[in-house]
Amino acid sequence: MADHAVPPTPLDYAPAPESRAIVDLQPSYGLFIDGAFTEGADGRTFKTVNPATEEVLAEVTEATDADVDAAVAAARRAFRGWSRMPGRERAKYLYRIARILAERSRELAVLESLDNGKPIKESRDVDLPLVSQWFFYYAGWADKLSYAGLGADPRPLGVAAQVIPWNFPLLMLSWKIAPALAAGNTVVLKPAETTPLTALLFAEICQQADLPPGVVNIVTGAGATGQALVGHPDVNKVAFTGSTDVGRQIARTVAGTDKRLTLELGGKAANIVFEDAAMDQAVEGIVSGIFFNQGHVCCAGSRLLVQENVYEEVMDRLKRRMTTLRVGDPLDKNTDIGAINSREQLDRITALASTGDDEGAERWSPPCELPTSGFWYAPTVFTGVTQAHRIAREEIFGPVLSVLTFRTPDEAVAKANNTPYGLSAGVWTEKGSRILAIADRLRAGVVWANTFNKFDPASPFGGYKESGYGREGGRQGLASYLTSSVLQEGE
Ligand code: TAP
């Protein structure tokens, strides 16, 4: 294998043009309940830090059971008016929110990068455009619920409890809140402990849009707050995105109640490159598949399956491309790979990746100098990986790629499906017939062909097997917040 050693990437980046001055950071943030910011019942707070510097960004209120109670009660009170409002009127609020999100997108992108560690070029060019698109898209559905596939007069479910992870804080919020509101539900959302800030700025945007009080409530806190929320007896629907372990706990909590549940959980996607693939595009797809958002992506292409006869060529090109990746300051628009979201996640990545070394896989990273403070992990590729290795079976949720090979399409499908997960997959080939044949046999909710990590609000997204159930996006995502019952469920 050719060695592509190049001089270390210099760390003296130009000052970030997307200056953080654009963000009006408050020293402390309260909960958003019934249309107003409020302190928590017992004054407990936690710190949210910038993972690129370890600087404390703000103190955030930790919601107690009593706060969750108040938020659910506010959502319940708001439900009657919101669910009976004509769809076209609800749509006006959603359009207004979508427009404000677009107008304030630079500020939101900088805040997202500060709190999450993701590169500004991703928060600015990927996350934020999708966030406002999600609200625009579902605003269009609010007066067309009879086309949701649930009969002529579908009804909202009531109060939705929504719990989201830290990897796409605002985008996951939009996937949850936009369809719920369009369908006439009210919501209580808990963002992840490490990334609460953009959800709180979103709350301010709800005020700016004059959204009726109680329609959206944001409770910040850790797992215990999430647990209180999903277990609350006056919640009608639970929507969760996060790890499979927590998803299981939530399914147990909800079991035996009449709450509806959707789960978007982990993944270990295969990105399959056939010998006839357009190699330049395939290599770009491999890189974005695993290094986009530091690999903190549930649908990341974390297992690369390469046809044996092009293995050398693919690895050669991939390594050359990886040497051009810039790791560093998330607010520098030239940065490709930002900070790992938390020390805890960095420890998890480090521990799981080191099992690759222990089990005999071969590790390679391009030369790159990592900043001395903050949480960082160099882009890494493991070759010589077998299906038995933990790095081929478990979700690493970081910038670590495991490479396996295959000889025949049947072997590619068998290896791709050899995982408890089933969220996504990628296929790279020139043959349209092969794309269709392979996609049909892959047990994955989303299959990308000659592209990767493409999202659209009109396209349903969700998993098979241990990647969860239910779909978000499109008509299916709307339907999961509706019932065909003639009774108004949430009253
Ligand atoms: P989790 O630890 O599962 O956390 C997700 C959310 O649940 C957070 O808000 C968390 O709060 C909260 N939570 C933790 N314990 C809870 C409990 N017992 N009851 C209710 N809520 C609880 O996952 P994570 O570390 O944030 O995210 C990484 C995982 O999410 C990966 O496995 C990834 O694949 C998956 N993910 C999946 C998708 C889709 S679309 N399928 C998208 C993104 C991420 P704290 O933050 O305070 O712990």
UniProtKB/TrEMBL annotation:
InterPro entries: Ald_DH/histidinol_DH, Ald_DH_C, Ald_DH_CS_GLU, Ald_DH_N, Aldehyde_DH_dom. Keywords: Oxidoreductase. SUPFAM superfamilies: ALDH-like (SSF53720). The keyword Transmembrane does not apply. GO terms for molecular function: oxidoreductase activity, acting on the aldehyde or oxo group of donors, NAD or NADP as acceptor. The active site is at 264. Residues 38-483 form the Aldehyde dehydrogenase domain. Coiled coil: none annotated. The keyword Zinc does not apply. Signal peptide: none annotated. Belongs to the aldehyde dehydrogenase family. This is Aldehyde dehydrogenase family protein. It comes from Mumia zhuanghuii. The lineage of its organism: Bacteria, Bacillati, Actinomycetota, Actinomycetes, Propionibacteriales.
